[in-house]
């Protein structure tokens, strides 16, 4: 058993990290626009520092990003040259509804994505569309408090109806919310949550998450009604937790760590809050307000497939074990002594991808889709213009081998693989440009300087061969 004949090879991006053109085409302002680089970034992302507009003295990398808004034809041609079967991108909500609560959508925004999807199809590339990748209109945050407000379900429903109607026949693969579990770690991203002094933040986060879950189920329902061809996936920031040791206390922590991650996609995939989650909420003293009908909506509209990002596995230990924490990303984790780390301290664990795939497939028995994976690294442009990113090739090769083993040896059903940041883009975690993931280099630096010229890295040719052989040849 090898990869499906129609395996969807490709790459992934998100509107706020590549489009730029933040004030073009009648676009409205979004949370993602006003997240600066530097020390305050983390505070803004986690909702501890309110920043709902541009402020003096800060650099906002999403404003221009890599200007894909004007370069998309050139970029998609390069994806086509690599042989992409799919391209994962996200819709900028405020291009379609600049404020989020208008009656009518913005035609210029709709036309932009229509042209972009048509451009993809010219090269036989099937778009894979994330409806929201961390973005939320600023107006909806100011007026309604973002996803803490139940009204958000209506605004989201309106958005998806417009998208499914307009792009029928052009798009059939949809993801409702990027990394839905990130709401618990980075609540300003996506959910647009900013906290008031002294309020119960857990209560707000879980209530907002409930609204997203209902919105996601409604979107799934509407997608299927509008076009039975539509397939909708949930999207998890994945990476299984390992116990630090075989001490049962560490093992128990890893069970809890995994459940903390699965919690929301358990609802999206199985149609109900799992018993452990209800107990956990009770334990935390969180009471989620639900409306009559919510549980039916969740039950009747589960997702068609499970998509996820994978960068690293995680480690859990008993709180009294005194083990070292690692820098890592926004997820708190413990250093795994068996693993090396990237330049940004992310632990590198290809076998962990196989483990994560097996965990997810055992749990849900639905097709999986790896929609993010890759290495953020500093690239050097040589005098002759070449970029020899052998480190990226070896990272990806090891992960693709592990993915292949999961499919061929373990029988996991996998729809496709889109590597993260197939073209260099702005980092979500840090706002940097120099943390590069791409097969395509973009001449732009952390301060926003550069020509924006695109060039092929060594990994470009490598990935092209991988795709041409449907993953048979990884060398
Ligand atoms: P960067 C961490 C922090 C923020 C977003 O991350 C994250 C993660 C990893 O779990 O999730 C995804 O750019 C996200 C992308 C993001 C990518 O990880 O901090 O969906 O938007 O760019 C990589 O290196």
From TrEMBL:
UniProt-listed GO biological process terms: carbohydrate catabolic process
GO molecular function, one term: beta-glucosidase activity
InterPro entries xref list: GH, GH_1_N_CS, Glyco_hydro_1, Glyco_hydro_1_AS
Pfam families: Glyco_hydro_1
Annotated Gene Ontology cellular component terms: cytosol
Domain of life: Bacteria
Keywords linked to the UniProt accession: Glycosidase, Hydrolase
PROSITE patterns linked: GLYCOSYL_HYDROL_F1_1, GLYCOSYL_HYDROL_F1_2
Catalytic residue positions: 372 (nucleophile)
Family of this protein: Belongs to the glycosyl hydrolase 1 family.
Protein name: 6-phospho-beta-glucosidase
């Amino acid at each position: 058993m090898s990869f499906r004949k129609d395996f969807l090879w490709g790459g992934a991006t998100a509107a706020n990290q590549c489009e730029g053109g933040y004030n073009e085409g009648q676009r409205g302002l979004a949370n993602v626009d006003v997240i600066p680089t530097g020390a305050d970034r983390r505070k803004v992302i986690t909702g501890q520092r309110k920043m709902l507009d541009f402020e003096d003295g800060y650099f906002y990398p999403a404003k221009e990003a890599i200007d894909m808004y004007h370069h998309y034809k050139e970029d998609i041609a390069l994806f086509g040259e690599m042989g992409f079967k799919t391209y994962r991108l996200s819709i900028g909500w405020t291009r379609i509804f600049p404020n989020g609560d208008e009656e009518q959508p913005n035609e210029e925004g709709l036309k932009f994505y229509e042209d972009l999807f048509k451009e993809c199809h010219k090269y036989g590339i099937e778009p894979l569309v994330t409806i929201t990748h961390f973005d939320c209109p600023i107006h909806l945050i100011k007026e309604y408090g973002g996803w803490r407000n139940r009204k958000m379900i209506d605004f989201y429903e309106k958005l998806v109806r417009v998208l499914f109607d307009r792009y029928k026949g052009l798009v059939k693969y949809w993801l409702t919310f990027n990394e839905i579990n990130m709401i618990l770690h980075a609540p300003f991203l996506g959910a647009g949550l900013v906290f008031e002094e002294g309020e119960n933040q857990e209560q707000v986060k879980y209530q907002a998450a409930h609204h997203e879950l209902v919105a996601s189920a409604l979107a799934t329902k509407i997608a299927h009604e509008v076009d039975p061809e539509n397939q909708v996936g949930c999207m998890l920031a994945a990476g299984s937790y390992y116990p630090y040791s075989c001490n049962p206390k560490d093992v128990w922590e890893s069970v809890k760590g995994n459940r903390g991650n699965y919690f929301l996609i358990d609802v999206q995939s199985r149609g109900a809050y799992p018993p452990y989650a209800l107990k956990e909420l009770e334990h935390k003293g969180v009471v989620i307000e639900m409306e009559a009908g919510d549980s039916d909506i969740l039950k009747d509209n589960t997702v068609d497939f499970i998509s996820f990002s994978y960068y690293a596995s995680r480690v859990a230990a008993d709180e009294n074990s005194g083990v070292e924490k690692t820098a890592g990303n926004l997820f708190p984790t413990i250093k795994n002594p068996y693993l090396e780390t990237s330049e940004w301290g992310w632990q590198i664990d290809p076998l962990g991808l196989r483990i994560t795939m097996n965990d997810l497939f055992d749990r849900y028995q639905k097709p999986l889709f790896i929609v993010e994976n890759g290495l953020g690294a500093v690239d050097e442009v040589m005098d002759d213009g070449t970029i020899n990113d052998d480190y990226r090739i070896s990272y990806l090769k090891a992960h693709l081998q592990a993915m292949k083993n999961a499919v061929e040896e373990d029988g996991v059903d996998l729809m496709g693989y889109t590597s993260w940041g197939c073209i260099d883009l702005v980092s979500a975690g840090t706002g940097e440009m120099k943390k590069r993931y791409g097969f395509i280099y973009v001449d732009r630096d952390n301060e926003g300087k550069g020509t924006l010229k695109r060039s092929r890295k060594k990994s470009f040719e490598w990935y092209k061969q991988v795709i041409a052989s449907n993953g048979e040849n990884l060398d």
